[in-house]
Specification:
Elements (H helix, E strand, L loop, with lengths): L1 H21 L5 H4 L1 E7 L8 H8 L2 H4 L3 E7 L2 H10 L4 E5 H11 L3 E7 L5 E4 L14 E4 L5 H13 L9 E4 L4 H6 L5 E4 L1 H9 L5 E5 H4 L6 E6 H6 L1 H18 L5 H7 L7 H13 L12 H13 L12 H4 L3 H11 L2
Parallel strand pairs: 1-2, 1-3, 6-7, 6-8
Antiparallel strand pairs: 3-10, 4-10, 5-8, 5-9
Helix pairs in contact: 3-12, 6-15, 9-14, 12-17, 13-14
Length: 340
Amino acid sequence: MLRRTTTALLLAGALGAIALVSAGGPTAAQDKKVVIGMPGIPPIFTTVQPLVAEKVGLFKKHGANVELRSFDNGTAAARAVIAGDIDMSMSPSPPVINQISNSGANLVAIYGWPNADWVLASIDPAKTSCKDMVGQGVGVDSVGGARSVALRSLLAGGCPDVKIDQVQQVALGSNASAAMLAGRLTFGVLHLDDLALIESQGRKLHVMLEMKKTNPDSHYLMLVVRGDKLKENRDAYVRAVAALVDAAGYMKDPNNADTVADAAAPTGHPKDVNKAALKEFLAIDFWPSDSDGLDRTKLEATIALMKKIGGIQPGKEVIAYDKLVDQSVWRDAVALLKKP
């Protein structure tokens, strides 16, 4: 009688486990925690996508066990991926391309944000020309970081007579807009939400250069992982990307604007600024939901630009697009989203 009861309990347990898996219950992928590094302290507005996925339960919905962790900038986050301290990072494409080409870093891009929103702006209406920047401080995240590389690209495309060594790069993390508001700085490389924040304070910004005009083929940001870790934890990574894609679609629904603005609270902006910034970012299709965001034309143009402006050192092997990206993770994530 005892043996019969034990057998029945074991069978019931096995059937229960099968039912959990088939119903989207706990799996080995869910047991693997995926740590995603986000750029900026406080995080930049790009990170609203994973913040939304966390707030509305999309990571959990797709069986992804995710922890979000902020870094000074995306370049530092990429270094943490290389070191094995975190699993993924939202990192600017130009520095990542340089890291891989110059040092052979084992990084692979599995999702991307192709449309750069960078602008070079002045808070002084009397100083809005290229020559006004010579010898002046310009707010960036860190020398060699995303804003720094963006500054170099903006100058090359819009102010060819002003070289990067003719301006003083002031490392401020994601706080360039605060320094400009405080009167400590005239010029800064900014995001669209920085513009919304400054203008919400009644100050007028003068946009001097826009990346979408000076370098329209530039690629902004990539979700990067280590190649060997991708093989080990592929299912967990696919589930994390599925949640991000789901979040991108959620954010495009106007009915969700208040929830998205609330989720963006870690950026440090007031809710009205978050809602204003959300409209600006959606207008340039910033968060991809119908593609992997790893546009070949843009990435190959960015690779060529990094070689041209010296980001990739002479004599180093320039990373090729097909080695830089793995589009299969996106395809599997989309397939997961389509499952009942």
